[in-house]
Amino acid sequence: MLLKNSYIPYGGYWSTPFCKWQGSFANLHPLKFAAQVAQDALTERHISPDIFDSLHLGTTVPSKSSFYGAPWVAAMIGAEGITGPMIGQACATSARVIAGAAFETEIGNDADPAILCITTDRTSNGPHIVYPNPHGPGGKGDAEDWVWDNFNRDPFAGNAMLQTAENVANEANISTEEQHEVALLRYQQYQDALADDAAFHKRYMVSPVEINPSGRKVIGKVESDEGIFATTAAGLEKLKPLIPDGTVTFGGQTFPSDGNAGMIVTTAQRAKELSANPDITVRLQSFAEGRAKKGFMPAANVPASNKALQLANISIADVKAIKTHNPFAVNDIYYVREMGLKKEAINNYGSSLVWGHPQGPTGMRLIMELIEELVLLGGGYGLFTGCAAGDTAAAIVIKVDS
């Protein structure tokens, strides 16, 4: 999808820190939590909920009353007059939410629409679902652990997500040692975001976040990402592959986590009005999806990226910053080989390999980091891409002028 009139106000976005599953956010209702964070973020930016024409919600793990989706979240933030879709597309949820908001902006049903995008998930304490099956033995239902079972089996490919990384590693001859090299590099890049009292994170991250599950008493605070694994070459060397004859170790993959993020998508004029700095323009250029062959999920970032670049009428050489959702180090190794890049050229300031993967909000946080990196570089084109369940991927090209 080529985009011509879709913009993100500079600073019109926010993300909580991400907490490793069963951590500090484990008992917070994801929709209520996201609504409270969004309400506080909008207040801090002096933006009234009344300005929004719709709300696009991205969430992939069902939670109590999530049936009511976007209308409920809109009401909780004080925008009772609007509604919108609820989207769940696994790891590509953020990209699809932003693309949907951009499409609504492009068609212009409202003269100058402003769309609020919220993405949220809690992989912790995921639901255990029983589906009725009158034909089961004794009428016994079919059970599913929503998070665990779906991470471990693609119903079409018949394999776990881990196996897709092994399939790509085997075909592309990617060793454990090379995966560990990339894992260490990504951890080191993340340290740059923590420098100067986490100056980079403060450009977009909500901190501290109060833990208030009852709505009556604050029981703790989260100031930064929680559950990051200290990574060293010596520590990685001790790790063994997780499956027999495999290559992927615990150090070469991400971990499930909890958190939420928000972003405004609107027209050029409204973006300037809502921007923290009207001299900085953030334009959405294109959105595309891709799909790899069966059981090769990490490879899907390449066709998605190439399609997004083609739509934006630029080449990879024109791109100044790249962020990837990299659930496995294999993703980035395959990607840079195919795209003709160096490992060091992507994922500055961190990536989901290091700070975890709460599903819905992962890509949105990466796009925020992409915007901020481009601002620090003085502007230019940026590319986000991330693989997703079903051997798919999504990609977005943005352009920052400052």
Distance between the termini: 25 Å
Biggest sheet descriptor: 6 strands, mixed
Shape: globular
Average of pLDDT: 96
Summarize the structure in words:
It is a single chain. By secondary structure, the protein is of the alpha+beta class. The protein is built from 12 helices and 14 strands. The chain has helices spanning 30-44, 69-76, 93-107, 146-152, 161-172, 176-198, 233-237, 268-274, 301-312, 329-339, 352-355, 362-376; strands at 13-15, 19-20, 54-58, 86-87, 114-122, 128-131, 142-145, 209-211, 220-222, 257-266, 281-291, 319-325, 379-388, 392-401. The strands form 4 sheets. Strands 1, 2, 3, 4, 5 and 10 form a 6-stranded mixed beta sheet that branches. α1 packs across α2 and α6 (176-198) crosses α10 (329-339).
Secondary-structure map:
Blueprint (H helix, E strand, L loop, with lengths): L12 E3 L3 E2 L9 H15 L9 E5 L10 H8 L9 E2 L5 H15 L6 E9 L5 E4 L10 E4 H7 L8 H12 L3 H23 L10 E3 L8 E3 L10 H5 L19 E10 L1 H7 L6 E11 L9 H12 L6 E7 L3 H11 L12 H4 L6 H15 L2 E10 L3 E10 L1
Parallel strand pairs: 3-4, 3-5, 12-13
Antiparallel strand pairs: 1-10, 2-10, 5-10, 6-7, 8-9, 11-14, 13-14
Short description:
With 402 residues, this protein is an alpha+beta fold. It has helices spanning 30-44, 69-76, 93-107, 146-152, 161-172, 176-198, 233-237, 268-274, 301-312, 329-339, 352-355, 362-376; strands spanning 13-15, 19-20, 54-58, 86-87, 114-122, 128-131, 142-145, 209-211, 220-222, 257-266, 281-291, 319-325, 379-388, 392-401.
Structural features:
single chain; 402 residues; alpha+beta; 6-stranded mixed beta sheet; 4-stranded mixed beta sheet; 14 strands; 33% helix; 21% strand; globular
